[in-house]
Amino acid sequence: MADNTALKPVVLSSDLPVFAVLDGAQFDDLPSALFEGDFVHRPLYLDRGNGTADQLRTAPQLVWLDHDRKAHRRNEDQEDAVPVAPVLERLLDMVEQRPALVFWVCEAGGETLYRHLRGINKILLSVDAAMDRGQSYERNPLSYQDEPP
Q1: Is residue 142 part of a domain?
Q2: Quick check: is 57 in a domain?
Q3: What is the pLDDT of residues 44-83, one digit of tens each?
Q4: Are 1 and 97 in contact (CB under 8 A)?
Q5: Which of 10-14, 80-84, 106-110 is predicted with the least confidence, judged by mean pLDDT?
Q6: What distance lies between CA 104 and its chain's CA centroid?
Q7: Does 51 map to a domain?
Q8: Closest Cα partner for 69 from 79, 59, 60, 61?
Q9: Does residue 20 fall inside a structural domain?
C-alpha cells in the first residue's frame, strides 16, 4: 500500500507551485470525485467526443494544490492562490492509500505544466513516412504481420 501522507511535509516545504496528477484508473469516477471535492482540475486526455465514459472517468487529472473552487466562487474576480495545506489534506483524504498520486513542481505555473504533460504523448510523423495511417498504434505500423516478431 502507498503511504501518501508521508509526502505531505515534502509537498508543503516547496517554495514553488506544486501540482498533483492523479491516476483515474484507481477511482470509480475521478472527475466526479474531484468536482465534488471542490478541486481545480483538468483532464490530461483530450476528449474529442469519441471517448467512452470509462475512458473519461479513468483519465489522469492535473490538480492545482494552490487553488480551490470554493475560494474561487467566493472571490470570482480574484485569481489569488489559497494555502496549499487544506487542499492537500482534502486530496490525501480522497486518495487514501491508493498508489494514484504524483506531485509536480513547476515555477512557470499550472497552465505551462498542463501543456507540457499534454504534449508528452504527442509524436510527429513525417508526411512521407512509409506507414499505413489506418493501422493501430498499438503495434508497429511498419510491420505487415499481425503478430509481433
Answers
A1: no
A2: yes
A3: 886 665 667 777 888 899 999 988 776 554 444 445 667 8
A4: yes
A5: 80-84
A6: 10
A7: yes
A8: 79
A9: yes
